[in-house]
Amino acid sequence: MGSGQVNERDTMTDISKDLELVGVTKRYGKTVAVDAINHHFRPASYTCLLGPSGCGKSSTLRMIAGHESVSDGSILLGGRDISHLPPAKRGTAMMFQSYALFPHLTVLDNVAFSQKMKGVDAATRRKAAAEMLELVDLSKLADRLPDQLSGGQQQRVALARALITRPQVLLLDEPLSALDPFLRIRMRTELRKLQQELGISFLHVTHGQDEALALADEIVVMNNAVIEQAGPARDVFNAPKTEFVARFMGGHNVIALPEGHFAIRTDAVGLADQGQLEAAVTAVEYQGTHVSVTTRAIGDQEITAVIKDAEFFENPKAPGDTVGLTWAQDSLHRLIN
Ligand code: ADP
Ligand code: MG
């Protein structure tokens, strides 16, 4: 066994390192794009950085990758401060969009390119690239040029090109946004599977809450340059802490009651003759398995109840009807603001 292989095995047993952000800040002139964020990413996990456009997701990712300098704070990987290391020395890799592939190089040579730059000999780098292509299921297309591939295949080449550096953390910035809806769902399944096979951390930036829910072990919700809430995907969805998170994750109502502001899942609200709140039905939308009933309650609050179809049709409602809105007390989640 060559020394190259021994090395590779050593890194393979030692890949699940913690990534930690400590007071990380990014300023562009007077704009504060990322404002002193702290987060400990769990090792070997799939994390989605979720938030609306302009909230600082890409800046955060690029600072972790080393493609953007840190204005303040530190980035630690496995306890080591990597904040000022060049991208290739960090143990991270960024998956670039597929249009960054070299058009004149074959798929195999595109994947082997970074190793060529490092001076790895042709046989070794071609073998490594072939292994990566097998991982992303593209072995048969190794000799093609990028423009002879579909969008999804090009994306898998981009993925192989990032993974050949054997990163501890793979960084992906909106990797599915250029794909059509069908491919997007297929590709996200593949990303998830790959992360589990490799046992490394994936950090995936998205503005789509459905994508984050489908993929992530952990969701970090950003808004206005700060982290609003972070935690396991189900916790963030079920128990949003702020009105912003409740509305951004969707599937929730925000209700103002004398005791404060609360989030409640739309499917936790029921309809009855008498309930906790009286409301007028404003719209009824049939959704197949469920019916979405929108109402207006006291204080001009819009509250939606999503009712199972069979239950709704036992006692159907129409716009203009007065209903009582009901819920179990423990389905209310108090909001901080
Ligand atoms: P996101 O990826 O969440 O959409 P970004 O990190 O790209 O957000 O941007 C966050 C903020 O920083 C935005 O206000 C954006 O306009 C600003 N910004 C991003 N990159 C630059 C840059 N290179 N120069 C100046 N401002 C920037
Ligand atoms: Mg972005």
UniProtKB/TrEMBL annotation:
<dbReference type="InterPro" id="IPR013611">
    <property type="entry name" value="Transp-assoc_OB_typ2"/>
</dbReference>
<dbReference type="InterPro" id="IPR003439">
    <property type="entry name" value="ABC_transporter-like_ATP-bd"/>
</dbReference>
<dbReference type="InterPro" id="IPR003593">
    <property type="entry name" value="AAA+_ATPase"/>
</dbReference>
<dbReference type="Pfam" id="PF00005">
    <property type="entry name" value="ABC_tran"/>
</dbReference>
<dbReference type="InterPro" id="IPR017871">
    <property type="entry name" value="ABC_transporter-like_CS"/>
</dbReference>
<dbReference type="InterPro" id="IPR027417">
    <property type="entry name" value="P-loop_NTPase"/>
</dbReference>
<protein>
    <submittedName>
        <fullName>Spermidine/putrescine import ATP-binding protein PotA</fullName>
        <ecNumber>3.6.3.31</ecNumber>
    </submittedName>
</protein>
<dbReference type="GO" id="GO:0022857">
    <property type="term" value="F:transmembrane transporter activity"/>
</dbReference>
<dbReference type="InterPro" id="IPR008995">
    <property type="entry name" value="Mo/tungstate-bd_C_term_dom"/>
</dbReference>
<dbReference type="GO" id="GO:0016887">
    <property type="term" value="F:ATP hydrolysis activity"/>
</dbReference>
<dbReference type="GO" id="GO:0015697">
    <property type="term" value="P:quaternary ammonium group transport"/>
</dbReference>
<dbReference type="Pfam" id="PF08402">
    <property type="entry name" value="TOBE_2"/>
</dbReference>
<dbReference type="GO" id="GO:0005524">
    <property type="term" value="F:ATP binding"/>
</dbReference>
<keyword id="KW-0813">Transport</keyword>
<dbReference type="GO" id="GO:0043190">
    <property type="term" value="C:ATP-binding cassette (ABC) transporter complex"/>
</dbReference>
<dbReference type="InterPro" id="IPR050093">
    <property type="entry name" value="ABC_SmlMolc_Importer"/>
</dbReference>
<keyword id="KW-0378">Hydrolase</keyword>
<feature type="domain" description="ABC transporter">
    <location>
        <begin position="19"/>
        <end position="249"/>
    </location>
</feature>
<keyword id="KW-0547">Nucleotide-binding</keyword>
<keyword id="KW-0067">ATP-binding</keyword>
